[in-house]
Amino acid sequence: MTQTDAPSLWERFGGDPVFAPLLADFYARVAASPIRPLFPEDFAETLQKQFAFQSEFWGGPARYSPWRGHPRLRARHLPFTIGMPEATAWLACMEAAVAASAMSEAMRPMFLERMRAIAMAMINQPVGDPPRDT
What we know:
Layout (H helix, E strand, L loop, with lengths): L8 H5 L1 H17 L12 H14 L7 H4 L4 H5 L6 H16 L8 H14 L13
C-alpha cells in the first residue's frame, strides 16, 4: 500500500456512517445545553455545515469548500459571544456524542484533541470581561 492508498482520517474515524449519527447526537445535546441560544432555531443547516466541514477537514469528500468557500472558522464565529463557559459546554456536548458514537476507541483521543483546539480558538471573550451584546 502506498501513501496515497492509505485511508484518510475521515475513513479511519468511520466516515459518513459514524459522523452522520454522531453529529445528529451532538446537536441534540447542544439543543438541551446552556449554549442553545447561540444556534438557530432549526439545526438542519447547521448540521449540514458541520458534517460538510468535518468531512473535508479530516480528508474525506470535499463537501464544505465547494458549498461555503474557505471555512474561516474564527471569522464566522466572531458575531457570537464565546467565552470559556461556551467553549466548555460545546466540548462537553461533543465529548458525550463521541462517547456514545461508533467511532473506534483508538481514534477518539485524536479527534477530541483537535475539537478541543478548535473550541479554544473560537473563544472571543477575554476571561473576566462581561459578555458583549449580540
